[in-house]
Write a structure and sequence with these properties.
This protein is α/β, with parallel strands linked by helices. 44% of the residues lie in helices and 14% in strands. It is built from 18 helices and 13 strands. The C terminus is likely disordered.
Length: 436
């Protein structure tokens, strides 16, 4: 009998336009290579009649809980069960649990992968695959702790819902965006999800985080040794072209409706842009990503000749080939920042904060293509040096070498083989076929 894999997620693996989708697309790509597209199933939450995005494998639609169901779950469980989290409540439908149980019973997969606690709560006690895995993404307890720390600062303004907004009932969205509401909710959710993260990993054969430091933290909290690090499987970049332009172009990349991205780019423009313009009068900052906040729009308007808000850009290779450096000025966040890896894969030097580089084993001296500096007021001088030639070429070479030895496809797929207990070799090789 053929080995099969089932991925259960609320997020489509395409378009590959954010870090979450990079990881999910990499998992799908890996399973398709190992098992063949007919043996890989992707169960995705969606509205009735919604269009299925094109991706390989067999797609299954799961009914997204309606607002009434969400509010019932919120009242029934979130208010009475101190270990139940808000994000679980938003997808805590009994009907959804039954759909997933029926799908597992029908498919009898070899491997089940559940995308975060939101869907991991629906993994049925029986039947279950020989290998059941929870992809945690990152530790939300850490993320919320850092959000709260930064939220105490005077220059902080954010939409706390971010991409999670699609799972929140419409009637609650405006309420939860009020600081007087979301700050105590974040504190409550931080405490609950910290307990829940430590509990839920006991129900899975492996639980995966992209940040190795968070792996150690969750192992310590849970006492469970099966928490493991998973390296993102990025799409291969073949012979990346580096033609940095003059005047210099700086790139900030990320979904701008995610709180840590919005805060990061606003903090950089507010703190460093005027001094950078003084040092490099022709510099251009390209901010790439959808969902710019009103705060960011206002800040960009103060620098009309040097700050461009470009929205979604399809061809990142062209953007990176021209860039002098990529900026990652994150002040909070968790997990591994895929945007940093995307830049290093193309030999683009990165200027990052400690938070942005967390979980990426780059050398502190910049030898791996990434300079780390937490004081944004010092960034203009570092950027001016890079724009003048400085160490940019050495950083570019270091970035390419670092990525090749740490994140190359062969390195990552060997890790996945061990995590998912699958044999090396593509589906065609196992079937004895010769691929030209």
């Amino acid at each position: 009998m053929s080995e099969t894999a089932l991925i259960v997620s609320a997020t489509a693996p395409v378009p590959v336009d954010n870090g979450k989708r990079v990881v999910l697309h990499g998992l799908l790509d890996y399973f398709v290579d190992r098992l063949g597209p007919d043996n890989v199933h992707y169960a995705l939450l969606g509205e009735a009649g919604s269009q299925r995005p094109p991706f390989p494998g067999v797609a299954h639609r799961l009914d997204k809980p309606g607002s009434a169901s969400q509010l019932v779950t919120l009242a029934r469980r979130f208010t009475t069960d101190r270990s139940y989290t808000l994000q679980e409540a938003m997808l805590g439908s009994r009907a959804l649990s039954e759909q997933i149980r029926a799908l597992v019973a029908w498919l009898r997969p070899t491997v089940e992968v559940y995308d975060t606690l939101r869907l991991g709560q629906h993994a049925p006690a029986e039947p279950r695959a020989p290998r059941r895995v929870l992809y945690l993404d990152d530790l939300f307890s850490v993320r919320y702790e850092r959000m709260l720390a930064v939220a105490a600062q005077d220059d902080f303004a954010m939409d706390p819902l971010g991409q999670f907004v699609d799972f929140v009932p419409v009637r609650l969205r405006s309420i939860m965006r009020c600081p007087a509401v979301y700050r105590p909710i974040l504190r409550l959710e931080r405490d609950r999800i910290r307990r829940r993260e430590a509990e839920v990993v006991r129900s899975f054969d492996a639980s995966l985080l992209v940040n190795a430091e968070e792996v150690e933290l969750l192992r310590e909290r849970s006492g469970v040794p099966t928490v493991r690090s998973i390296t993102p499987l990025l799409r291969p970049v073949v012979n990346p072209v580096r033609r940095p332009v003059s005047p210099p172009e700086l790139v900030f990349l990320g979904r701008l409706n995610i709180p840590h991205n919005d805060d990061a780019v606003c903090a950089f423009v507010r703190t460093a842009m005027s001094e950078l313009e003084r040092r490099c009068p022709d510099v251009r900052l390209r901010i790439i990503g959808k969902g710019a906040s009103d705060t960011l729009l206002a800040l960009a308007a103060e620098h009309p000749h040097s700050v461009d808000l470009e929205g979604f850009v399809d061809d990142l290779d062209a953007v990176f080939s021209r860039a002098t450096v990529m900026l990652a000025p994150l002040r909070f966040g968790s997990g591994v920042k895929i945007k940093v890896l995307e830049a290093l894969a193309r030999g683009v030097p990165v200027l990052a904060t400690t938070t942005a580089a967390e979980g990426i084993p780059v050398a502190a001296d910049g030898g791996d293509g990434c300079l780390i500096e937490d004081d944004l007021a010092r960034w203009p001088a570092l950027l001016a040096d890079l724009a003048d030639g400085g160490s940019a070429a050495d950083l570019s070479a270091g970035a390419l070498a670092f990525f090749a030895r740490t994140y190359a496809r062969a390195v990552v797929t060997a890790q996945y083989d061990a995590i998912f207990d699958l044999r090396p070799g593509s589906a065609e090789e196992r079937d004895g076929l010769i691929v030209s």
